[in-house]
Amino acid sequence: xxxxxxxxxxxxxxxxxxxxxxxxxxxxxxxxxxxxxxxxxxxxxxxxxxxxxxxxxxxxxxxxxxxxxxxxxxxxxxxxxxxxxxxxxxxxxxxxxxxxxxxxxxxxxxxxxxxxxxxxxxxxxxxxxxxxxxxxxxxxxxxxxxxxxxxxxxxxxxxxxxxxxxxxxxxxxxxxxxxxxxxxxxxxxxxxxxxxxxxxxxxxxxxxxxxxxxxxxxxxxxxxxxxxxxxxxxxxxxxxxxxxxxxxxxxxxxxxxxxxxxxxxxxxxxxxxxxxxxxxxxxxxxxxxxxxxxxxx
Amino acid sequence: xxxxxxxxxxxxxxxxxxxxxxxxxxxxxxxxxxxxxxxxxxxxxxxxxxxxxxxxxxxxxxxxxxxxxxxxxxxxxxxxxxxxxxxxxxxxxxxxxxxxxxxxxxxxxxxxxxxxxxxxxxxxxxxxxxxxxxxxxxxxxxxxxxxxxxxxxxxxxxxxxxxxxxxxxxxxxxxxxxxxxxxxxxxxxxxxxxxxxxxxxxxxxxxxxxxxxxxxxxxxxxxxxxxxxxxxxxxxxxxxxxxxxxxxxxxxxxxxxxxxxxxxxxxxxxxxxxxxxxxxxxxxxxxxxxxxxxxxxxxxxxxxxxxxxxxxxxxxxxxxxxxxxxxxxxxxxxxxxxxxxxxxxxxxxxxxxxxxxxxxxxxxxxxxxxxxxxxxxxxxxxxxxxxxxxxxxxxxxxxxxxxxxxxx
Lengths: 297, 408
Known about the structure:
The complex is a heterodimer.
Chain A: H1 3-34, H2 41-58, H3 64-86, H4 95-117, E1 133-136, E2 139-142, H5 143-165, H6 167-177, H7 179-184, H8 189-214, H9 221-236, H10 241-261, H11 264-281, H12 292-295
Antiparallel strand pairs in A: 1-2
Chain B: H1 2-22, E1 30-31, E2 38-45, H2 52-71, E3 79-86, H3 91-104, E4 110-112, H4 116-129, E5 133-135, E6 148-150, H5 155-168, E7 173-179, H6 182-197, E8 201-208, H7 216-225, E9 229-233, H8 238-248, E10 258-260, H9 265-271, H10 273-276, E11 280-283, H11 292-305, H12 313-332, H13 337-344, E12 350-352, E13 355-359, E14 365-366, E15 370-374, E16 380-385
Parallel strand pairs in B: 2-3, 2-4, 4-5, 5-6, 7-8, 7-9, 9-10, 10-11
Antiparallel strand pairs in B: 1-3, 11-15, 12-13, 13-14, 15-16
Helix pairs in contact in B: 2-12, 3-4, 12-13
């Protein structure tokens, strides 16, 4: 095994991790705040991918991908907020029912996409400037993957700044720490819920756009990422943004480095085994959130 | 405590999510209208789930053949009544629907199946009920049942001809990439035996879980191994991800040629023809095949399913299966599955879009192998034709020594 291959796999690990981050952040946000498991999260990714397809149909050219991310962020965000208002908010007291209800939504969205766009899937062509690779030493790094990593870093940075610096961010943090007290202090908890659900969905929408650069856009595309996204959220410590990020990088690296020795199928087994062992020794996940919301239950 | 509960719910959700990717799909069975002097046949394909993309079109071409035969007067004086069921991309559902077709609907034969897992799940049902399944897709061989007519290619009619072609072209280092299930594993087992036997180099063997889309590691290994050619037995959506990520890494088909065994005209369209342009495919039929039967079939299919519709190898096998069944039933003057089977393997050659073909005594179709190269429109230019028709052999002599398929 040569050094270029090893560094290549480390790069791949981070590249895969950046996709997991975009896929899992929304789940972590809504779980951290509302203790709601959104089974339709994968389909929100899928909607983001299809929005990218539609946007690039209308705005071809080198900047179409940015327009697509904007459209997907807003479109998926509105879908998420709508889903929260129409369904999730009615069921917050019954977590298992939310699970089933959002799973139902996921089936509806999948079949909807199948009826509108057909079962065969559509293709999103990356703009020409994402086609090539940047060669560092003997190692060509695909531009598309570098771009996805940049998007993940930008989204993480943007979210962190937003939660830390803005007033809305302050409200979100307040509700996250202690829902009852925040509510008693006059924070409109319901609005914060809908907002964060929409924000998480918007991030997933962006995730959907970048997925379309690497893989197929089909009605089932969300299903291939949702399980790993859940895994990342569990490993990360259920709801912490930093934990989610670290967990995504850990899973990405384990996956990529395992592939040096075994094939993809077996690498997935090893990754699951790693998560199981990790949780055996650290059941609270990477970062344990100590908030009163959790103590109260 | 609260936290542990949440984790348990999350893990439950995870499990539910995994289970439902394979298990919980909708069923939309549709039975045809009944008629007194009709003979019932089953059509059993995945009309929902991940395989629907491929199988719906095979169902369409099977239905087209049934409609054509009915318009021309039917079989043995009876109209064919198709009972269509949805296998839902799930082997267990295939088995259950096959039982239902045979036991409840009383069909005399069934046309259907795509994945080897679905065929393997249905096999015991057909053997127990002594009914007959017409299976239209290329597969890995290593199976020999008197109750299945294997019209798709055996390994020696698709994969080995492609291998011989690659060898002739001077490719010495071969990299194997496949989805992780029975067909690619068995096909690659056979390929490995031949690579070893011929003194070529196998420069890698990688499997991707069904539906998997992350090829970063595979692409890196291909780059490190620098093979002359890649033999690709990936199935379904994974192909899109594989070709996209190879292209992104600067290894398009002009740099490292890819020979695919599950990419036909339909898949090339769905993936975006520019993605697969220049890559090779091995089949027993391409839409570009030049013969009058094929021209007639393609025109009839387009007339019914739209001018943009494309035709693929498994669709043609689904179509010709119905015609061979008709010819066999007429020869046997009976719809009894055993008699039809006996007649089918002794028929004279039947004209089909593949050319005139016949079934061998081992229940498989004698057919020609072709290598095509994808053009910018997602059609294939035929580069190579096997010298003559190839007799089907389910048991490769190198991989399964001493095994033969004799059906009496």
